[in-house]
Amino acid sequence: MRDHTKLRAFELADNLALAIYQVTSSFPNNEMFGLTSQLRRAAVSIASNIVEGSARNSMAEYIKFLNIAYGSAKEVEYQISLAYRLHYIEEANYKTLKEQCIETSKVLNALLRSLRSIS
């Protein structure tokens, strides 16, 4: 088993999830079961899949869950763009969230490349 808390990817994903929860708390009430829920789920999915993958015994399963986490990071990147264009997120918050998404994706991608090269 691997310790997910030692991974930079987990730290970034966890911080991103917290930021998404903070920003979406001001979304319109009619989005509670729409974009608010989708964004929160996708953001939590990034960190959750890193944790679940870390708990798996095989490298193949670990990589599988990290791939899912990466996909969720890209999903969040699109959803914050949509929220910005719908004027649910101010420009400063959008830029910060987008940077967090990009950094999280880059670190996850680097981790995946590294793991694929040794497996």
Care to describe what's here?
The structure is a single chain. With 119 residues, the protein is an all-alpha fold. It has helices at 8-24, 35-54, 59-85, 91-118. The chain has a single domain (4-118), classed as Up-down Bundle (de novo design (two linked rop proteins)), CATH 1.20.1440. Helix 1 (8-24) runs antiparallel to helix 2 (35-54), helix 1 packs antiparallel against helix 4 and helix 3 runs antiparallel to helix 4 (91-118).
CATH class: Mainly Alpha
Shape: elongated
- N- and C-termini, Cα separation: 16 Å
Quick one: CATH superfamily? 23S rRNA-intervening sequence
pLDDT average, as an integer?
96
Strand % is: under 5%
Radius of gyration: 15 Å
Give the CATH topology.
Answer: de novo design (two linked rop proteins)
Structural class: mainly alpha
The helix-strand sequence is HHHH
Number of helices: 4
The number of domains is 1
Main sheet summary: none
CATH architecture classification name: Up-down Bundle
Low-confidence stretches: none
Helix content: over 70%
Care to count the β-strands?
0
Question: What is this structure's SSE topology?
Answer:
Blueprint: H1 8-24, H2 35-54, H3 59-85, H4 91-118
Helix pairs in contact: 1-2, 1-4, 2-3, 3-4
In short:
The protein is mainly alpha-helical. The chain has helices at 8-24, 35-54, 59-85, 91-118.
